[in-house]
Request: fold
Amino acid sequence: DVQLVESGGGSVQPGGSLKLSCVASGFTFSKNDMNWARQAPGKRREWLSTIRTDSATFYADSVKGRFTVSRDNAKSTVYLQMNSLKSEDTAVYYCVYTYYWGQGTQVTVS
Reply:
């Protein structure tokens, strides 16, 4: 079974940083693109970033220049480094593989 387990969320002041991790299992991680998304209270889910198997990266305009996605195929782990955090970044952050979503990790910026 596919499992995606996020960690690294927490509370941080505006301007601070956090690094999220997502450990994947149940599929061949190195052969698949991985994504990050988030959902803020009362808002729709928002795609944030994709990292392809060739490590090419893509970002939503809302996080471009502040967030960096990376992957470690040996650890089946995808990361999201978040810098210059803003209050509007407060949300539950999800690791996504095709239509599989992790349980999410809460990020609060205040």
Summary: The chain has a mean pLDDT of 97. The longest strand covers residues 18-25.
